[in-house]
Amino acid sequence: MGNPPADDERVIIPVARANPVAPPAKPEKAAYFNRELSWLAFNRRVLEQAQSGRHPLLERVRFLAIFSSNLDEFFEIRVAGLIQQADDGGVGESSIDGLGAREQLRRIHSVVASLVEDQYKCWHGQLMPALAREGVLFRTAQELSAAELAWVQTYFREQVYPVLTPLALDQSHPFPQLGNKTLNIVVSLGAPGAAAGEAAPVALLPVPRILPRLVRIEPAGTGPQRFIFLTDIIKLCAGELFPGYRVSSAHAFRVTRNSDLYIDEEEAENLLKKIEEELRNRRRGAAVRLEIEDGVPDAIFTTLCEHLALSHEYVFRLGGPLNLLRLLSLCDIDRPDLKQVPFTPVNVSPLRDPAHIFDILRTQDVLLHHPYDSFQPVVDFVEQAARDPAVFALKQTLYRTSGDSPVVRALIEASRQGKQVTALVELKARFDEANNIQWAKQLEEAGVHVVYGLIGHKTHCKCSLVVRREGRGLRHYAHLGTGNYNPGTARLYTDLSLFTARGEITADVANLFNTLTGYSRAPVFSRLLVAPFNLHDRVLALIARETENAAAGRPARIMVKMNSLVDKTVIDALYAASQAGVTVDLIVRGICCLVPGVRGLSERIRVRSLVGRFLEHARAFYFENHGGEPLIFAGSADWMPRNFFRRIEVVFPVDDPALRRWVTEELFAMELADTENARELHADGGYLPIRRAEGTPAFSVQNYFIAAAQQRALAGAID
User: Fold this and answer.
1) Which of 165, 204, 345, 643 has CA atoms 20 to 30 A from the CA of 335?
2) Residue 665, SS3?
3) Would you say 396 and 423 are in contact if contact means Cβ atoms under 8 Å apart?
4) Quick one: 307 exposed, middle or buried, by C-beta within 10 A (0-12, 13-18, 19+)?
5) How far apart are CA 605 and CA 594, in angstroms?
6) Rounded (10°) CA dihedral 10, 12, 14, 20
7) Comparing 35-338 with 365-527, is the CATH topology the same?
8) Which residues fall within 8 angstroms of residue 260, CB to CB, at 6 or more apart?
């Protein structure tokens, strides 16, 4: 939209503190939620979407798959770190609520066991029967008709058998290295005439990732769509791999490994090569979870646990199928009646004509709200800069981007056009390291200056800067966002994009790029809040100003929308603000360590979480600032120690009056009015539905923004 005609170690570089702020006094009897348990509560809310009949059936399947993927990453990173800390004797800081690593692991196991039980109840008890009623059937080996069995056996021989390699487990065949999250089948064999008490031979069947995990059964004919899981096919036909033996049992299992990368950047002579080496080691990280089908023989179960060095609290016996993330492929079937009504982002902003982007930005700022507003103007901004002969230089941050990135292509084109192009590629963007290494190499080959940012800090900010010759001088244009330069996720995540040519802001953006590509021990920023330099202090100062206003009897309010709230100093400042009389509304999608609604501590603080069709990813901040205009910001940073001290983050002001009104009266007001997807956090840690007056229909803010976008598109077509 335009105005009318996005933990413990401190930063290792000096931090500029132009306006030092004393940390707030710790409130008496301050309380905090555990970070890991708060994250599990968030994933519970994702699972609730799969359990809810409000969503179309295949969308519920999608939520179940996302829940599974989230839990994988939680074990790979968070649980892995706690296990390592516990194995080191608990060395390291306690959590924000004072729990040590072992106690956190104990509580995590209890919660995860309950979540996994509910996950499979949802699949077997809700989704599978509902799919069957819609003509989407899942077959087990025992349920196959004669025709289906023949088709499955042929499929196995032609598509599966050629790529399977059985691995014997005995004294001459050591236990193989099992890759992270790979599917494996453990088979117990019997031989005719074997002596009583003789140990049964055991073999493994590693299943290549290239094989689809969900197979549609396709004998000729019409009728219901029938599917079978690959594990069931392999278990049914495994005997063909072991001539002369009979299969006594076959069970699928999956190992999750520590997937964090441990890199000493100061010792690494070539960061790109070092990360490539670590990526090769990732698949061999320490095991942190074993998922195995229920019913596996005790001897085999014990062997697996001993080999993986896993105690039983990290083992989950499942009713199958393993890895429900693979259900995502089911969402691709042609059943629009079981999916959300498609929504196409609208492109009716002042920047819809790429040829006039710079002309428009000389006269006004433009703010886009993705995915309701198309991401295309962001791509157009970079592409137009690449081909505009008046553009001299283009500077860009890249944290995560798409497989065939139009932004990367534009940077390459700009470099080939002879422009000065600089790209800050974050090689350490978790699970995107390999992609970003590929982008870095392609950009370097095209002559782009590729930089990896400051040692010890991830470059997480979302910035693009264009330097253009206009008349006898140079003018800067900037795009600043809350989300990544990824057109794919821009259709799924809610984010904000600000385009501006305001000199005081673009000068700060230029200063930021110079800091990241050169040397600057204490950069000073006029309008931007930049981590690790001034963001933390400025946030505390803004909260302190509201606290002082409330204490003096003046109006005081804070509204914040973000993904996570973890930083203890900021939480204490919010507690102090509440005690002074500040009204605080927090929209925190994921982790929230602040405890709201506690008398004498946080009774003026409300916390809501929104989990819906789109992933709420934007960060926005409102401070009443009595005596002047409210201060409104947006940016890439959550309020977590890593964002304040170990990442390069940018939070930018929203100055245009019309855009400021939209943030206040639409973004915040409408999200705080949601009664359909919102859940309110209570002092006991529970997230409960928002109460609404009897007879009042539920209000979905995401549906509201979809309808508003469609109305803008209709109005634009009429004009």
Assistant:
1) 345
2) helix
3) yes
4) middle
5) 9
6) 0
7) no
8) 76, 77, 80, 81, 285
Q: Identify which of 129, 138, 117 has the alpha carbon closest to the alpha carbon of residue 318.
A: 117
pTM above 0.85? yes
pLDDT band at 633 (very low <50, low <70, confident <90, very high): very high
92 has pLDDT over 80: no
Going along 566-718, which residue ranges are E strands?
A: 583-588, 605-610, 615-616, 620-623, 631-635, 647-653, 678-681, 687-689
Which is the catalytic residue, given 370, 460, 476, 479? 460
- Going 72 to 9 to 276 to 400, the CA torsion angle's sign is positive
Beta strands in 99-164 (DSSP E): 136-138
Q: 530-718: what fold? A: Endonuclease; Chain A (3.30.870)
> In terms of C-beta density within 10 A (0-12 exposed, 13-18 middle, 19 or more buried), how is residue 313 classed?
middle
With tokens 């896993």, the residue in question is 310
Give strand pairing partners of 696.
none
DSSP strand pairing (167-169 vs 202-207):
antiparallel
Distance in angstroms (rounded) separating the CA atoms of residues 531 and 290: 38
Catalytic residue check, 369: no
Q: Which CATH number fits domain 365-527: 3.30.230.10, 3.40.50.150, 3.30.870.10, 3.40.190.10?
A: 3.30.870.10
Main-chain phi, psi angles of 574, to 5 degrees? -70, -40
Enumerate the β-bridge partners of residue 255.
290
Contact indicator for 555, 580 with CB cutoff of 8 Å: no
Q: Over the stretch 13-30, which tens digit does the pLDDT of each residue have? A: 223 333 334 555 555 557
Q: By C-alpha distance, which of 602, 495, 538, 426 is closest to 30?
A: 602
CATH of domain 35-338: 3.30.1840.10
Q: What are phi and psi of 64, to 5 degrees?
A: -65, -40
What was the pLDDT predicted at 11?
27
DSSP 591-623: -B-B--S-TTTTTTEEEEEE-SSSEE---EEEE
Is residue 12 scored above 60 in pLDDT?
no
Task: Supply the DSSP symbol for 527.
Answer: S
| pLDDT per residue as tens digits for the range 213-258 | 999 998 756 678 999 999 999 999 999 999 989 999 999 999 999 9
Contact 58, 331 (CB under 8 A): yes
Check: CB of residue 6 under 8 Å from CB of residue 636: yes
Domain definitions of the chain by residue range: 35-338, 365-527, 530-718
Of all helices (H) and strands (E), which one includes residue 393? strand 391-398
Q: Which amino acid is at 690?
A: I
Six token digits for residue 563: 């993904």
Instruction: List the helix and strand counts (H, then E) for the chain.
Output: 20, 27
Q: Are 36 and 593 in contact (CB under 8 A)?
A: no
Residue 165: what are its φ and ψ, rounded to 5°? -130, 105
Q: How far is CA 162 from CA 158, 629, 669, in A?
A: 7, 70, 59
* CA pair distance 175, 255, nearest whole angstrom: 14
Which has the higher per-residue pLDDT, 172 or 485?
Answer: 485
- 10 Å Cβ neighbour count for 199? 9
d(CA 439, CA 105): 37
